[in-house]
Amino acid sequence: MLKVPSDNHGDLLDEEFTTSREFWSKVHEKQNGGLSWGRAMNEVRVERLIHRYNESGELDNEDPALVMLKLWPASKRFKDNPEKLPGLEKLVNQLLGILFESELNSGNRYESFRDREDKTEKTLLHYAAELGFLHVTKALVKRCPPLLVELTRSQLRPHKRAMLPVELALIGESDEVAAYLTRMMWHESVKKLFSPRPDDETTNSKPSLFSLNSIITNIKMKKTVVAVLDKMVNPHWPYLPKRKDTYVSQEEKEGIEGVWKTIPEDPLNYWFHYAILDSDEGGRLPKVLLSGGHKESDNKYFKWRDKSCLHMIAKSNNKEALQHPVVRMLIKTKWKSYGHFFLSLQAGLYVIFLLFLSYSLLYGSTKPDPTHYRGAADLWCGFCEIATLLMVVFYICVEMNQIRIERYSYLSEWITLFDWLGLLLILCVIPLRYTGSKAQWTVASLALLFNFLRIFKFSCVTRTTGLYTKTLAKIIQQDLTRFMAVFVAIFLPFCGSLFLSLHSTNQNQEFSGFGDVLLSGVRALSEQRPFVADYSSFNWLSMLLMLMYMGTVLVILLNILIAQMSTTYIQAKKVARLEYDVDRILQLTRMERFPFLNLRVKYYKEGEWISEKKLAEELLEFSEDRNPWESVEEKLNAIRLLRKEWRPVYELDRVPQLEGIHVIRMVTDIPQFGFFGEPEVVYCSRSNDVHRQLEEHMRQNLRIDEFVKEEFAKNVGRDL
Q1: What Gene Ontology cellular-component terms does the record carry (predicted)?
Q2: 16 and 137 share a domain?
Q3: Overall number of domains in the chain
């Protein structure tokens, strides 16, 4: 049988508008029947596609859905104009909705439909995910939920493994589609995508199918990263016994039905899965379970030098991922376990270094010859100098180790400039001191300044200093830099004009040169004082220029700066906590990659159970935007609202409220029962009759709910 070329299918729509009188007659007839013009056109299009499919002998390559998702996008019309694909997606989504309601889809035919012409036998959802058609993907998942877990067929030559639809979306970097499919999948299936694979001889030594590190660093995949993190939070409801049509005794009926009538509105607690954030680039975990399954052992295949996913999230610009509860709770766990202790230890050691440095330089400056040591005070000064030099060598070794680990990313942090300037300037003091050069004190003063500025790298040792430092840095970065740029643009021409105007008279004795004019201009800004005390020697032009400069700088620019700083402070305060968490992540990951401590393996934690109350205490921290006298119940309500934000509700038609039914909450993702989906439907009823009424309604109207109930019936009795 001759296969119809794909370009003919791509031009089919144009043929309908230009050559088919029958097409327009049918459209007009349907419109007269009460349909809108667009709906009538789409129904006629679908009917023509079905007719063509029947005439071909029901060949798979002529199936209407396959034509829409495979042949139309591959046609020359859309290959040459990829910007038209969003319009095609909208059209295909409308046509598929009509096709799914037609007789061709009787028995839900497309749940098991595959493209037999393709070697991998893709499903419709595979094609939609590959194209990045989000709305079509949603429609397919809603109508045919089993497609979510259908695999393509593997190939030997060329080698291609069987893949899920979400994998094609990840490969194609379709962020929205990948994020949606990830949220629709069971959490264990998502974990497998980013977990190491077993080898023939070893266990979990091969890298994962997909590197979460690579996805995090891909700026196109921000929503997918958040979706993966969402699947790392799994709510826990109490065990629910299986319901029966008939019960052995009244006691059994009352017991089982009573449990179902008291399903809590919110879960008891949540399982936060941290392991994926501590994995290396291949998905390998720091520790693995032994054969017994109860004891953990260090993973010899784990590459501790690789940057963790937590580190990559901190380096990314994905604010939603940084604010995600899994990330924030892992930060708090690590910080309480070892982060705060080791950073406090480093800060304390550095304070001792500053004390030694300050005493050795300040006391040495009081001596005529700092190279001679007499008496106890001089000996103590010598001890401080030796201790300072030893600690300088130690800190240089630490920085060299960081360069070896961080490589190019080491240079991206501005604090490293202060690190090296402070350390190298101390070493420069030694030859200058023993040569008797007076320049030693200039170098020493700069060394003292830069080394004291280095202490800001330990600002996150406490929350108060961390938030304050971040707010101050934001103000300096945004406001002072802009102010200085405008100030220089005004300062230089005014000072130059003033200097030239003063040459018109020989009576001026206030300025010896252009440098004095520049210094006076800067002092006028910093000290808010006039250029000179006596203006009698100034001519009229010099007086005018000076007054214009003073008015512009002191009255206009300074007041604008104050107003800008007030606005920036309010904005910076809101993001300071986020940047504070980023600093803590970088400090934690730096400690974890120190070779002798092995903190990443030693303090590895797969996950933990967290209650709503703990979430409220840890995540809803006090800020000026919240009431300090907020009750526990108010915090719990706030955390429930937060949970709804980071676990989006799956898009389905709403279940109408039937008489006698009390709908508790919307949820279909109950991990302990082993099926997937997003929060959608959990309800309790006051009688079995009403319960059956709702079930019948759902069977007739919501196909996905029928599928969910089937999965529920299979898994509800399992002890998970």
Answers
A1: plasma membrane
A2: yes
A3: 5
